User: What shape does this take?
Amino acid sequence: MIPTEFDYHAPESVDEALRLLAGAGDEAKLLAGGQSLLPVMRLRMAAPEVVIDLGRIEALRGVRDDGESIVIGAMTPHFEVVESALVHEHALVLSEAAATVADPQVRHRGTFGGALAHADPAGDMPAPVLALGGELVIQGPGGQRTVAAADFFEDYFTTALGEDEILTEIRIPKHTGWGGHYEKFTRVAQQWSIVAVAAAVRAEGGSITEARVALTNMGSVPIRATAVEQALAGTPADADSVRAAVAAVAEGTSPPSDINGDADYRRHLAAVLTRRAVLAASGA
Amino acid sequence: MSVKPWRRRVGEFMSRISVTVDGVSYQDDVEPRTLLVHYLREQLGKTGTVVGCDTSNCGACTVHLDGRSVKSCSLLAVQTDGHEVTTIEGLSTDGELHPMQKAFHENHALQCGFCTPGMIMQSIDFVQDNPSPSDEEVRHGLEGNLCRCTGYQNIVKAVQAAASATAAGTEGGAR
Ligand SMILES: Cc1cc2nc3c(=O)[nH]c(=O)nc-3n(C[C@H](O)[C@H](O)[C@H](O)COP(=O)(O)OP(=O)(O)OC[C@H]3O[C@@H](n4cnc5c(N)ncnc54)[C@H](O)[C@@H]3O)c2cc1C
Ligand code: FES
Ligand code: FES
Assistant: This one.
């Protein structure tokens, strides 16, 4: 099928995009890579009257070094996140997670910002951003504001973004020298995560000094496993010690039950995948 | 979500695009909602690129946009304004098949052939990045392309043959 008719705008600056957005009200949709939006428009599950394409705003694309953080433009496609030397060096788990998204064609178009704004609970980008304590920079009619990842994801497909706002860039505190691993569990090719775990670990002399862990698809939003992070600090980086430290990772989560597995199965998976992710991230 | 089809008369809102397709530049008026694949097939008559699904999963519609593989069913024609598109129809030069096309032919990497245009376009993109791929890597690199005839074995062979033919510089001697 083809989408319903709409007015199309391709602004060249964020200011112009904001003006168009304000003018169109709730009839408008921002178009980033289109890899989530166009499929639902094709199925006519979405029928915006105005589409504002962010694809021509050069300022929104690319990764830069900003001292304590790296800054990733919202319109940076997944494959550029994967190939970025800065991301690889300072936020390894993010680069690994981006490499697991969909398939090569979708990674060439789909964007980092679009995946975060879309906030699919099974999406792979939110958990690593949460684990690394990322901040989302948002522009609206009233200027710019910054929201911590922990406050950005509010519910299924729902974020702190207002209808008149644009996610412009994401700041990721540098985790230089940390190991990172994204452990994604799927059954078939090109599948969304049934459960996945993002882990960043700093290890010294065979022992974990600090860990960051977040879970994908264990509830309506990505979940930071802070109790497990504390239990991991000081733990030897071996399978038995890590298994014990992460055993309770699913406590307090409410994972979905669906065709891919029921909630109990997902809780079991979460512990197994966390152990694997943490061990891989600590180089063990 | 509310669906409001047919709000306006067709043709009321058109956009002018300039796009290079298979080496030829075109200036055309398109409706913003026209998907790239429909522009290619219906406006330019390039029916070599096919539609195999309604869900952006099958990859049969794969083309190159500025040298990278994309699914032309998940892109608006207006988004290609000022850019360059290559389809399966633009691969051969002077009647000579592209080494990847030759390798698919010689390795019997197609049955009904419906997935083939997308498979070939994605394979070319893939071997650019990985000139001597393992079996496993080819399968992973073609993750976004489904073959309903399930002839994956020969597809993997063809991609490896084309990759090593190119590496050896033996103009398409893919065997
Ligand atoms: C076959 C297939 C498989 C996939 N598999 C996976 C997978 O395994 N894991 C995964 O994580 N994802 C997967 N995806 C989704 C993919 O990652 C998308 O790229 C992503 O979800 C959306 O990014 P986009 O740039 O395409 O956004 P779009 O589709 O353009 O937009 C998505 C939504 O976000 C809004 N939006 C976009 N950018 C902004 C912004 N800057 N500010 C405010 N709002 C914005 C849009 O208005 C829209 O509502 C898959 C997609 C397909 C087609
Ligand atoms: S037609 Fe199936 S992915 Fe494009
Ligand atoms: S050869 Fe028939 S779909 Fe692949």
Remarks:
- Residues 231 and 251 of chain A are 14 Å apart (CA to CA).
- The longest helix of chain A spans residues 263-281.
- Chain A touches chain B at residues 1-8, 10, 31, 34-35, 38-39, 41-47, 49, 51, 53, 55, 79, 102-106, 108-109, 189-190 (CB under 8 Å).
